[in-house]
Amino acid sequence: MILTQLFQSFLIIGAGAFGGGYATIAMIEHEVVAVHGWITASELSELIAIAQMTPGPIAINAATYTGFRVAGFWGAAAATAAFTLPSVIFCAALIRLFASAASVPWVETLRKSVQPAVAGLIIAAVLLYGQTSIPGLRSAVLAALTFAVLALSKDKIHPVLLVLCGGIAGIFIFGQPAPP
Amino acid sequence: MTIPQIFTAFFRVGALTLGGGMAMISVLRHEMVVRRGWIGEEDFTRELAMATALPGAIVVNFSMFSGYRMRGVPGAAAAFLGAVLPSFLAILLVAAFLFPYFSHPAAAAFLRGASASVAGLLAYMAFTVCRPMVARVPHLIAALITAALALVPGINPIFALIIVTAFVFRLSARGRSKDTGGAGDTNDAAANGKDGPR
What we know:
The complex is a heterodimer. By secondary structure, chain A is mainly α. Chain A is 82% helix and 0% strand. The longest helix of chain A has 43 residues, at 58-100. The radius of gyration of chain A is 20 Å and the shape is flat. Chain B is mainly alpha-helical. Chain B has helices at 3-16, 21-35, 41-53, 58-102, 105-130, 137-151, 157-178, 186-194. Chains A and B meet through helix 1, helix 2, helix 3, helix 4 and helix 5 of A and helix 1, helix 2, helix 3, helix 4 and helix 5 of B.
């Protein structure tokens, strides 16, 4: 049954994908392209493009889209549910742990100790994103402008509005018809 | 915050934010920490740290932690659905109807500009969000080592996370036993006072 296989695969992906969207895509590449051959390598690049350009978490986008490609609506539902199930279990377990062990000193130390590594994972995720979304000088200028406006406006400007401005600027900067 | 408010807040951010879960985190921070004060700065940092340390989509994990803190299990469920549903629905829409339009020159140019802009947004987020996590120099070094390890292709970042966390844990555990209440422990002490799941 393709749906149960999809569910199983995305359960594995959901339990193993650490570090955000790109880690998830790497896992999908392994499970879905290499192991099962459900989608081809060129469909995978389409998948990445769609996951990046659609609103929402890249990992959820990628899971939903793969499920949809493989088995339609129910495939999308199975993949998304399976991908998020480990998250739900791990979060519930951690909430339980901290509720029952709140006064144990080493638990608090552990919670603090994970923060530098987490900061590293966030930095890595941001660098990975930058690597794909800043292919040239003009993109770099747009990114730097966004950063500068955010830093100087002291959180007065809504980030979604800025991204929208970036997109509109993109139409003018990148939108010229290519020379024949 | 009521349950519908929690759902709507996460749904709105999920539906409007291009650039993935990290971008959603920075928009959530803007809306819920900076603007409305629904989430305290410390809660935000701590819950983001836990969310990142677990597998899966970071913003989905984050939604459950902060939903749970605000309104228990129903709050966690509302936040979870709010974070996942827009993405699910948007992908169905894109896969079924919209994908051909992505390659339209104007749309492609818009997306290129928007994603460059998102890179700037993420850099700003990393700057503001990571600062409290690496308050001391050894922590900053630990963070950079983790980032470098996580960027090596073929290594699951979980190994970087475990190794570096174990190292920092040993470091702070030793600091604690050496001088209880010393300079190194001020962070922990402050957190101890305010933490505690409800």
